[in-house]
Automatic annotation (TrEMBL):
PANTHER family: ENDORIBONUCLEASE YBEY, CHLOROPLASTIC (PTHR46986). This is Endoribonuclease YbeY. One of its GO terms (molecular function) is zinc ion binding. Its main location: cytoplasm. GO terms for cellular component: cytoplasm. HAMAP family: Endoribonucl_YbeY. Its cofactor is Zn(2+). Binds 1 zinc ion. Belongs to the endoribonuclease YbeY family.
Amino acid sequence: MSQTSLLELQVSVEEGGWPDEAVLEASSTRILEHAAAFLAREEGQPFPKMTPELSLVFTSDAEIRSINAEWRSQDKPTNVLSFPAFPVVPGGMPGPMLGDIVLAYETLVRESEDLGKPFDDYLTHLLVHGFLHLFGYDHLETEDAEQMEQLETRILSGLGVSDPYGDSDPV
């Protein structure tokens, strides 16, 4: 478990060809701390007095397919799933537990290759994407999707990752 200034992360590598857990924890902490600081600074996102927690689960297509079927009635693998612990609207005060982000290795590898993007950049994008879902951002409606995509692009720019929506992106 990693204690950071804005977030406390619980990282678990369950299945798949993921890098070492310590490597994933260090990079995820850097990425999500940047995203949290950006939301606080640029969007006025409040944070609870207690350091909010979130869990990251790095798993396989088979496992995420099972989760996707159970929770979203979609019997197929997907790249990332987010499960907010409490309902929150963008800009609202999150609870002390933000929720869970689950990522599937094989899908990320396949999609990053299809998009011609470095795996690490694509993983960074999906971590930011999943993180924004925990703060109530969504992409079901066009206006909401545009807002979320703009936030992702701005956050990723600060991490040195190019605009993921410059080309087709399956998120």
